[in-house]
Design goal:
Blueprint lengths: L2 H16 L6 H8 L3 H29 L1 H20 L4 H29 L5 H29 L6 H19 L23 H32 L6 H21 L5 H25 L2 H29 L2 H20 L1 H13 L1 H21 L18
Length: about 400
């Protein structure tokens, strides 16, 4: 196995463990007695730690090397899994989620850079796409695997995380023996700063932010509240189905990106939003119909459409920004997606669920998403008029 594929295995093994907890949330809610607002904090704590870690430790890996940051992130994630195995109560679970977020923020950007560093120059675009798809695939496999283990294996609160510790040990061993790719090291100040280049601000605020918030909010709800919805509103007792919501929304998003690599950014964003919003309405309709298959099919379609919106956003960033602004714009887009979908808006959905019920909260989310999607389609997309893709000039 060459270096690229060994690094890919590390990326996949790590990603699986960051979302393992998803199908366990209804069980924790039943055992510990917390409300739906607290359910959303399982993602909120994760993101609050992830964003500053992402903004700082990626820079740090450019200075001290990729391997130390990757090994530190693996160790931090292992510590979080050990805390969860100890069944620490609600406060301990939220602390563990924060550690998982910090580890993820340090790991994904650094490992993607490590993967691209190891790739031959002619295959770096493929390798970058492979990393993006693999992250979503690994995140989706976590809930799918955990749901099956909960249903068919003993010790559901401990076994999934104990098994992941074995995968992390394998990942750490692979990283230990991989050659470092950062050889020219210069110490520079680490800055916690998010900057949107002036030339791209109109597109960023009118198109990238609202579309990114919509797709990531669908992801966040599918990873937190939909498992609770399945158990409480539909009476599902098979936890393989509970884990399937997180699996489907993420894995179908990875597949849609892989199957339609050439779709133009504007069409990917608008088409993805046009499919995702009505598809998620099917999740709400599944409650009065009592149909688990309808819910899972609609979650899968929503995930595939959300994947296209994400692909369109990333492609749009790389298309309109010159090389010197590309990294800044991509970083700003990713942070907007995480904060827009996994923090305050998600908590608001949880508060609405506690006030009027989970079905009505998801219905309100669907209507708000439709309104935001219409704004992007009718108003925001005007920011793209007159923009031309940045031409890459290759000098001999």
């Amino acid at each position: 196995m060459n270096r690229v594929w060994r690094t890919w295995v590390v990326l996949l093994f790590f990603a699986v463990g960051t979302s393992l907890i998803t199908p366990l949330i209804p069980l924790y809610q039943r055992e510990l007695g917390f409300n739906d607002t607290v359910v959303t904090l399982f993602l909120g704590c994760y993101v609050l730690a992830l964003v500053p870690s992402m903004l700082t430790l990626g820079q740090f890996s450019d200075q001290i090397g990729r391997r130390p940051v990757l090994l530190g992130a693996i160790a931090t994630l292992a510590a979080a899994q050990v805390i969860i195995i100890s069944e620490p109560g609600l406060a301990g679970l939220l602390v563990a989620r924060g550690l998982q977020g910090a580890a993820t923020g340090a790991f994904f950007g650094t490992c993607t850079a490590f993967l691209v560093d190891a790739s031959p120059p002619g295959k770096r675009r493929f390798t970058s796409a492979l990393a993006s798809i693999s992250v979503r695939l690994g995140l989706g496999l976590g809930p799918g695997i955990c749901g099956v283990l909960i249903q068919f294996a003993p010790d559901p609160f401990q076994l999934p995380f104990a098994m992941h510790l074995v995968l992390l040990a394998i990942a750490a061993a692979i990283v230990w023996f991989l050659p470092e790719t950062v050889t020219d090291r210069h110490r520079r100040p680490i800055r916690l700063r998010l900057e949107v280049p002036a030339a791209e601000r109109s597109v960023f605020w009118r198109v990238l932010v609202p579309s990114g918030m919509i797709f990531s909010l669908f992801d966040g709800v599918s990873l937190s509240l939909v498992p609770v919805f399945l158990v409480r509103e539909l009476g599902v007792t098979n936890y393989a189905f509970v884990g399937a919501s997180g699996f489907l929304v993420l894995v179908t998003g990875a597949l849609s990106q892989a199957l339609m690599p050439g779709m133009p950014p504007r069409r990917a964003i608008l088409g993805g939003l046009a499919v995702a919003c009505p598809a998620f309405a099917g999740v709400v309709i599944a409650a009065p119909l009592g149909s688990t298959p309808l819910l899972l099919v609609c979650v899968a379609i929503t995930g595939a459409a959300a994947g296209m919106v994400m692909k369109g956003g990333v492609d749009l960033c790389t298309e309109i920004a010159p090389p010197e602004d590309r990294g800044k714009l991509l970083s700003a887009y990713y942070v907007a997606c995480y904060l827009g979908g996994f923090s305050v808006p998600l908590i608001i959905v949880g508060i609405i669920a506690d006030a009027v019920g989970l079905t009505w909260a998801l219905a309100a989310l669907t209507m708000a998403s439709v309104a935001a999607a219409l704004w992007v389609a009718l108003v925001g997309i005007r920011a793209l008029r007159g923009l031309r893709p940045v031409e890459v000039v290759v000098t001999p």
